[in-house]
Design brief:
- With about 550 residues, the chain is of the alpha/beta class.
- It contains 21 helices and 18 strands.
- Helix 21 links the parallel strand 17 and strand 18.
Length: about 550
């Protein structure tokens, strides 16, 4: 019998899904049966990846999509599994990750009227009024599959939303009776659901920016996620080589510009200080950035032109958002940069080229000076010495975020990523997704001790062993949640909490972070308490990942003062 479930799985395969990151439940018998039937009959289907935790499942799909640009699928159990996706939904939405999430529903009949009718007590408890409402505000598209006769069309439509800019997660649900339904075989024409083409910038935006560049002394590009498209990085390098424009990354989600390029002016994050490059700019070009600066402490001058181009310049999922840009374009950054490169005329750029190159060199020396023993900068520098430029680094270190981004110093697009969102715990599952997508590459994650616990390491390292996706996870041990303390001090520097030794954020008597991974997945585990131990520990951990093919966790105690 050809069922809705079989048609649904075929549609996923037809739309490019290669992996199903699944946490199966009592609403999935039809999917389980269809996968078993396909396996027995030799019918190709996406690979099933068993995920003991839902957030890890979605983080893995998120990471796979980041590595390849190809949307993957996550299968979870009714409203309970949907809620257990937790912060990974936020990360996929804010990080613009193309992912299809499918959740079953409690059966819609209870007297045996249809195949799949309720036969377990949990079916009454898991029936809610509006399951889609749980995640609707984060989704690019959501719908219920009410009949199997058009299930392929619904999957094609959902994936069209997921893959078209601005990309993001989509959500489908279906009851057991619908999944068990016998349906006719159909073969939709995928050409009817194309990914929408990238938008160019309006000609007047390009012309106005070209004119401003011709007269500017200190033009500056600010970007956060332009590097999601490799071709955009190449176009930005080409523009900066021709026009001597400085590049500043604001909380970068990926590699947007080579760190060793003389026009590169570094990274800005939450630090409460005015960025010098932004302060001296007389023309700012914001390309693909959700938070180009934090205006209470850091912003450009009021009297300068600001140009803004983004796939989502309105920031439709952000209720409060505004920058002082009078020239705004809804455009793909790679396309807009190509247009600009074809428009600008050669001018004398000697002075600003010399200026930015000198600032770049001074900053390089400043970075070396920050690499003091026991600091996050120093730990990162020791890792940098033992990896090649193809190594993929996943950064979820939060208070050490800028240290990782600057002291790894990535040069090639596709070699450093963050979640793009603000919910912690992405790094572990994402590493599995990256390893599945790039089995030939070394993957390293950096996280704080808090982020490590949020990543559900027991589930992550079980999966890493089960699916042969070893990676190195470096835990920068701050002794607890450092970020809440810094946030408190920024508002109450001399308050009661600033004088208290216990504000509820320390992990006194900490867990055995690396031991969790060893117990769950046989990972190489080591605590590093003294600086002289670090180099050997990194070497041993990388040997475990590259040669022994098992994951490794280093619990590195930081000198946080």
């Amino acid at each position: 019998m050809y069922t809705t479930a079989m048609a649904f799985l075929e549609a996923l395969r037809e739309t490019g899904v290669s992996h199903l990151f699944a946490n199966l439940g009592s609403d999935h018998p039809a999917l389980i049966e269809s996968l078993a039937e396909a396996r027995a009959e030799g019918v190709p289907m996406p690979r099933l990846i068993t995920c003991p935790n839902e957030m890890v499942a979605l983080s893995a799909a998120h990471g796979y999509a980041q590595a390849t640009g190809r949307a993957q699928a996550v299968i979870v159990h009714v409203e309970c599994g949907t809620q257990a996706l937790a912060g990974a939904v936020h990360n996929a939405a804010k990080g613009r990750a193309p992912v299809l999430i499918f959740a079953g529903m409690s059966p819609v009949t209870q007297e045996g009227e249809l195949p799949g009718s309720r036969n377990e007590f949990i079916h009454w408890l898991q029936d809610v009024n509006d399951q889609r409402a749980i995640v609707r505000q984060y989704m690019r598209y959501d719908n219920e599959i009410r009949t199997g006769v058009n299930v392929k069309q619904l999957v094609y439509r959902a994936m069209q939303f997921a893959k078209s800019d601005p990309q993001g997660p989509v959500y489908l649900i279906a009851a057991r009776e619908v999944l068990e339904q016998e349906v006719p075989r159909i073969t939709p024409n995928p050409a009817y659901w194309p990914v929408l083409p990238s938008s160019p910038a309006p000609a007047e935006w390009i012309e106005a920016l070209a004119a401003s560049l011709a007269t500017a002394r200190r033009p500056l590009v600010v970007t956060s996620y332009l590097g999601r498209k490799v071709e955009a990085v190449a176009e930005l390098v080409r523009l900066c080589d021709r026009a001597a424009i400085g590049v500043l990354e604001s909380v970068p989600n990926c590699v947007n510009f080579p760190a060793d390029h003389p026009m590169y002016q570094g990274v800005q994050g939450n630090e409460p200080a005015q960025n010098e490059a932004l302060a001296e700019a007389d023309l700012v070009i914001v390309l693909d950035s959700d938070v180009p600066w934090i205006p209470t402490v850091n912003k450009p001058r009021q009297d300068i032109p600001v140009f803004h181009a983004d796939i989502d310049p309105l920031k439709q999922q952000m209720p409060l958002w505004q920058i002082p840009a009078l020239h705004i374009a809804r455009a793909d950054a790679a396309t807009a940069l190509q247009q600009l490169n074809e428009t600008i005329e050669p001018t004398d750029i000697t002075e600003r080229k010399t200026h930015y190159a000198a600032q770049h060199a001074a900053r390089a020396q400043e970075l070396l000076d920050r690499e003091t023993e026991g600091s996050a900068e120093w730990v990162t520098s020791r890792v940098r010495r033992q990896i090649d430029r193809d190594t993929i680094v996943l950064n979820e270190a939060i208070t050490s975020y800028r240290a990782i981004a600057e002291h790894i110093g990535p040069r090639d697009p596709g070699t450093m990523f963050t979640s793009g969102g603000g919910s912690l715990g992405w790094n572990g599952g994402a590493a599995i997704g990256f390893r599945l997508a790039c089995p030939e590459k070394t993957v390293i994650t950096f996280s704080g001790d808090g982020s490590y616990l949020f990543s559900v390491p027991s589930a992550v390292h079980w999966m890493a062993r089960r699916y042969a996706t070893p990676f190195l996870q470096i835990v920068l041990n701050n002794g607890g949640w450092r970020s809440p303390r810094l946030s408190m001090l920024s508002l109450h520097p001399d308050g009661y909490a600033s004088r208290s030794s216990d504000i509820g954020v320390s992990f006194d008597q900490p867990p055995d972070y690396s031991g969790i991974a060893a117990a769950a997945g046989g990972a190489f585990a080591r605590k590093v308490a003294r600086p002289e131990e670090l180099d050997a520990a990194i070497e041993q951990a990388l040997h475990a990942v590259r040669v022994e093919k098992r994951a490794a966790v280093l619990d590195v105690l930081l000198n946080v003062g």
